[in-house]
Amino acid sequence: ARKSRPVKARGDLSSISNAKGSSPAATHNIARPGVVVIAGAAGIAGGSAPANGAPVDADGNVYGNSFRPSSSELAGSFPVCGPVEVGDILATDANHPGLFCRSAIPNDPGVVGVVAGKPGLLLGSPAKGKKGGELRAPVATSGVVMLKVDAGYGPIGLNDLLVASPTPGYAMSSQSPAPGTVIGKALEPLDSGTGLIKVLVMLR
C-alpha cells in the first residue's frame, strides 16, 4: 500500500478527532509552535494514531470533525505578474492572462482578492516564492484581512464599501460602487493618508 505524504496544517488541531468509519493511520508531531505535521501509513493498511490524532488515508486526505486555525484569513496560492506585498489589492490583467496583478485602475471590475499575511488556511501550492519559474502569492478571497487603503480620495468610514483606487495596490471608499467592483467592507476607519486597515473581503 502507498504511504500518505506529510500534511502540514497551521492552527490548533486539538479539536480534530477520528471521523466516523475512518481508520486511524496517522502519527503527528509538533515541528515548531503552531505547526503540526501529520503523516502515516494508509488507513486501509493499518497503523496507529495517538490520542486526538487525525487519520490520513492512502491519498493523503485528513479526516476529522473540525479544524480551527487561529487566523481568520482564507487564501489560495495564485500566480502573480510581479512582486506584491501584504495588503495589496489584486486584479486580473488583460496584458497578463492567467496572472493576478496589483490593481491600478479606479473601480476595477477585475478585482479578485487581497495578498494575505498569515492565512489560516492556504489552498494550492506553497505561497510566496518561485516554483517552476512562476511567482506565486497567497491571495485572500474571503475572510478578514489587512488591506492597503488610500484616504486621499475621500475619508474611509466604518462599514464603507471599498473598491480599487488609482494608487497601485490600494483601495478607496465608494458610496455607490458598480457591480463587480467591490473588494470588501471596511472594519476600521481611516480619515486621511494611506495605511493598512482591517477589512472583510466580500467580492460583489
Structure description:
By secondary structure, this protein is mainly beta. It has strands at residues 7-10, 27-32, 35-39, 73-79, 89-92, 100-102, 111-115, 121-123, 129-131, 134-150, 161-164, 171-174, 182-186, 194-201. Strands 4, 5, 6, 7, 8, 9, 10, 11, 12, 13 and 14 form an eleven-stranded mixed sheet that branches. Strands 1-3-2 form a three-stranded antiparallel sheet, with no helix packed on it. The termini are far apart. The model is unreliable at 1-51 (pLDDT under 50).
Q: What are the low-pLDDT stretches, counting only 5+ consecutive residues below 50?
A: 1-51
Tally of helical segments: 0
Helix percentage range: under 10%
Please tell me what the overall shape is: globular
Radius of gyration, Cα only, in angstroms? 20 Å
SSE class? mainly beta
* Topology pattern, helix = H, strand = E: EEEEEEEEEEEEEE
Report mean pLDDT, rounded to a whole number: 78
Note the main sheet.
Answer: 11 strands, mixed
Measured by DSSP, the beta-strand proportion falls in 35-45%
By DSSP, the count of extended strands is 14
Q: State the separation between the terminal residues, measured CA to CA.
A: 46 Å
Characteristic key phrases:
single chain; about 200 residues; mainly beta; 11-stranded mixed sheet; 3-stranded antiparallel sheet; disordered N terminus
Helix-strand blueprint:
Blueprint: E1 7-10, E2 27-32, E3 35-39, E4 73-79, E5 89-92, E6 100-102, E7 111-115, E8 121-123, E9 129-131, E10 134-150, E11 161-164, E12 171-174, E13 182-186, E14 194-201
Short description:
The chain is mainly β and 204 residues long. The chain has strands spanning 7-10, 27-32, 35-39, 73-79, 89-92, 100-102, 111-115, 121-123, 129-131, 134-150, 161-164, 171-174, 182-186, 194-201.
